[in-house]
Structure formats: C-alpha cells, structure tokens
Design brief:
By secondary structure, the chain is of the alpha/beta class. The chain is built from 14 helices and eight strands. An eight-stranded parallel β-sheet has the order 1-8-7-6-5-4-3-2, with helices on one face. Helix 6 links the parallel strand 5 and strand 6.
Length: 360
Amino acid sequence: MSFEQFQNTWQKSRLAALGVAFPVTVAPMVGLSHVAFRHLVRHFTPEGLNPLLFTEMLSTRRLPFERIDQVDELRVMDQESHFVPQLLGNEETYIARSIEKLMPLNPWGFDINMGCPARQHLKHNWGVRLLGDPDYAARIVAMTKRSSTRPVSVKMRCGQDKADPDFLERFTGGLEEAGADWLTIHARTQSQKHKGEADWSLVTDLIPKRRIPIVVNGDIQTAEDALHLLRDIQVDGIMIGRAATARPWIIWQVAWRLGYTKPPAAFPGQKPPETPEEEGQAFLRAMLQYCDYLDQYFTDDDKKLRRLRFHVINACKWLVFGHAYYSRCMKAKSLDEVRAMTQYSLENYHFPMSQRINLL
C-alpha cells in the first residue's frame, strides 16, 4: 500500500473526520509527557505530519488557581497546536474553570482521565475509579462537553479487576451518548497497572459497536505493532506510551513504512533508524537533544535532572545492557555530566535496542 492509498483510506476514517491529521498519537504520561519530551517527539516527526501529543495529567482542582506561565506541566512549544491537555477531575466548576484557563494555549482538544490507577487519585473518585460508576462517568463527559468548544476524548481502561466485554460495551456506550468525541482504551485492567501483555482484541472487538472513533493503547512497542493494528486490523487509531520514550522516532518509522518518505526537518535526506544498532545509537543522540530541550524549557537544575532520570528509567528497558547507561545517569550530578557521559558512550559503546520487551 502506497502512502497515497493509505491516505485515501484514512481520510474516510472516523478519526480523520474529527480533524486528526495522523492516526498515531503519543500518550499522556505522568512525569514524562511534558513539553521537552513532546519537542523531542516533534524533532523526529516527518515534516507535514501533525500527530496529537498529550500532556501530563493535570488536576482540575489545582489548575484554576495556577499561573499558566509559572507551571512546568503547562509549558508548551512556540506555536504548539496539536497537543491535548489531559484533565483529572469530577466537578463541573473546576473542569469549566480549568478549560477556560487552558484555552489561551490553543489546545487541539481535551482528554478526560479515566485510567489512572494511582491510589491518591482513587480516593477522590478520579481516574480509573470512574469505571465503577458508568452513569457518573457519563455525567463528567457531559460536564466537560458543556465547557469545551474543542473535541473531548476519554482515556480509560478495559475494566477494574477483570476485562468484561459486555461491561466495556455498556460503559463506552454511555460515554458516547454523553457526547465524547472519541475514546482511547488502554487494553489492560486497573489491577494490571502497566504490567503484562495488553489484550488488543478487547478494543478491536468494540470498534464496530461504537459510532465514535476508538483508539487502541497499551503494549504498542514497535512500528510493526502499530502497522498491524492500523493496516491489518484497521483500528481507528493507536496511542503509544512508554515505548516512545525509547523510540521518540517511532512515528517516523510508521510513516516511512506507510510510504511517507519526507523526513523530519532535522534529518534531511535520511531514513529512520531501523536495526537494533541504529536504534541504540539514535537513542544516545536523542538523549543529547533531550538535555538541550530540558535546558530550553525549564530553569530548576534539580528538576531537570530528575526529569531526565525518570525518562531514562522508562526508556532504558529497551536497551540491551541499558542498565549501564541508566546507572551512570543516576550518578550524574548535572545535565552537563549526562551530556559528557552520553557523548562518551556514543563514541565508545554500542547499546543495541530490543524490539519488544516484557513490560513490568
């Protein structure tokens, strides 16, 4: 299939009808999906593509009382338009005021978190706890729709303790009737958290039962995973999570395999990294770029280093012998030390990248 053929098919899809430019999105991830990471993904995104990138989870209890220009989680790229803030909350007043506060940033849409399993959020009936009350969850969608002129999506899980296709059909039907424009379903349960294999079939079986687009999330680790879902199963869209920390070029890889040969602006005339060795080297170069973006957007040196370390904790799982690079990052006292160590590793070591790993 050529890219033109793919585009012809894609333009008829339910997600494209909402104005989504490309079917691969990057997930909201606490501590990871901040502006420096989003810029890193854009750095590797081919020119002409505008995938949706999600922010970190944002508390609607806090947002109305914060200054946008002083909150790290609210920083955006210059003229960044295809980003989606993810909201955590369940009270209409706070949701409305949060959306009002965010509108000057020109978000593409808003996402409601119904998937976070963190204990501190469950006690407020936030996150995945909403799966326990379908009517209440639907009301939160309706609240958000009343305040938003932009598309509203929901990111949720397949269930709490076990996946129940009948429950999933009823629950998502309520969200659809309440006005959700599209849904992203993490194909794991609350009890799984981020462990083990995701059951994509739970989501793909649901797709024909909904009028709105359904995006698949969970355990999508490679371009081949993405293409299998997009081309073979013909899902509405996919959302990539932690694998994008190791492969910030994964959108480039998917586009290339679909026949889109236009490279990112930073890589004229090049193709995406493909072999384990190429990906391992690309990761180290990406970390040098990531350090620059952390310096560009943030001022607190300790927080910059913590963000770098948390990124590496997640990303290094895909690197063969990545624990060596991880341990050096943990010992570094500054981003400059990380840069020097990364450059030395780039010149003297080879950390090939695994295709798929067992996520823990």
